[in-house]
Amino acid sequence: MFAPVLFVLGALPLISCLPSVKAPYERRIDECTVPTQRKSWTALTSEEKLGYLNADLCLMSTPSKSGIAGAKTLWDELQYAHIIQVPYVHFVGAFLPFHRYFMAIHAHLLKTECNYDGPIPYWDETADVGNIKESAIFDAEYGFGGNGTGSSGCIADGPFADLTLHFKEDLNTTDYCVTRFLNDRGLSSASQENIDTCLAMENYTSIWSCLEGRPHGAGHGGVSGTMVNLFLSPGDPIFYLHHGFLDKLWWDWQALDLTTRLAEIGGNNTASRGGGFPGGGRPGGDFPGNPFGPGDNSSFVPPPGFNISNPSPFPGFPGLGGEPNKAFTDYFYDGGNVTTLNHTLWSAGIVQNITIGDVMDPRSGFVCAEYV
Fold it and tell me: DSSP assignment, residue 101?
C-alpha cells in the first residue's frame, strides 16, 4: 500500500510535506474477480438494508488507523480526506473520477474493516422527486432516519440519530451533530428532464459540467443541513448513496459509447468558479447547479449554520482570496492545468493513491463494481 502522505495544516493555505515532484508512485491494484453489486436502495431486502446500515455504524465506531491528526474513527478519516481537498475535487475535471474513487474507498473499508459483503446501495433520487420526506431511504427502521428537528436540525431518529462528527471546514475539531432539512425544492433538480439533458451530452467535459450542476445539487440541496455544506457533507451517510447515484449516471453515459468514453477525460485542475456549493451556495444564484434553483429565492430560509455571505472558508478557491496550492497541483502529475488519465487521486493515506485512468472503468481494477 502506498505510504501515507499527510499535509500539515497550520495557518491556511496548506503547507506541504510532500516530496518534490518525481515519477509517479508504484500502484498495486488487486485483480477484479467478483465485482461488488451496486443497487438502488429500494431494491435491497430489509436484511440487506440493516446489514449496510450496521456496517456504516461500524466505521463510525472503529478507531482511526491512518494517523490523521484529530481523527477518532474511520468515519472521521473519510470526512477529513474530503474536506482537505475540496477545491481540487469540485468544479474540476477530476470531480467525477475522484468521487468514484472516494466511494470505492468507503466500500473497501466496509468490507475490510467491518466484514460487509452485501451490495453497495445508491439513492435513485429521480424516483423521489416531489416526495422526499416519504422516501423509503429516510425510514427510521430500515433507512437512514428522517428529518432534523428543532432549531438545531439534528437528526432525531433512525440509526444515526446520535452520530457525532468532529472535523470542521478548517480541519479544527469540535463535536457537532448531523443536521437535515429535507425539502422537495432542492431535490427537484434530479428530475428526469435534467437527467436526460445530461445523458445527451457528447463529451466528457460536457457531462461532467452537467452532472455537477443540477443532479449534484439535487441530493445535497434536497437533504440540506450537513449535506449542503460542500466540505462537511460526507459526515451524513446519505452522501455515499447520493454520489452513488451520480456515479451511476456517469456510468450510464459511458456505457453509451464504451470505446470512446472509458478513456475520455478533460477539464481544469483548479476551480474555475469559486464559492462553496454549486451556484456559489447562495440562494438566488442563477447557475444551474444551485441546489435551491434559479431565480428569486427570497423566501428561502437557510438552515442554521449556512453562511450565505461566505459559505466557503477554504482559501484554495480562486476568486475567494486564495491561490491554487502547488502541494496539490504539482502532485497531480498532469503537467499542466488540464486533467489527464495520469491525474493522481489521493485519500490522505487511507488507501493507496491511484490515477484517474485506474477508475475509468468501474467494472475492473480498484473500483470492481457493477450496477444492477
Answer: H
Inter-residue contact 351 to 78 (CB < 8 Å): no
pLDDT over 60 at 102, yes or no:
yes
- Ordered DSSP codes for 269-286: SS-SS-SSSGGGG-TT--
Rounded to whole angstroms, what are the CA distances from 174 to 18, 71, 82, 168, 183? Answer: 27, 11, 17, 7, 28
Q: Is the pLDDT of residue 331 over 70?
A: yes
CA–CA gap between residue 338 and residue 317 (Å, rounded): 17
Q: What is the average pLDDT value for the chain, to the nearest integer?
A: 81
Identity at 279, one-letter amino acid code: G
pTM over 0.70: yes
Contact 56, 163 (CB under 8 A): no
Q: Which of 132-146, 277-291, 326-340 has the lowest mean pLDDT?
A: 277-291
Please tell me the distance from the alpha carbon of residue 369 to that of residue 246, in angstroms, as a whole number.
15
* Count of all residues that appear for the chain in the document: 372
Q: Which domains does the chain have, with CATH numbers?
A: 36-371 (1.10.1280.10)
Q: Closest Cα to residue 303, out of 220, 191, 198, 192?
A: 220
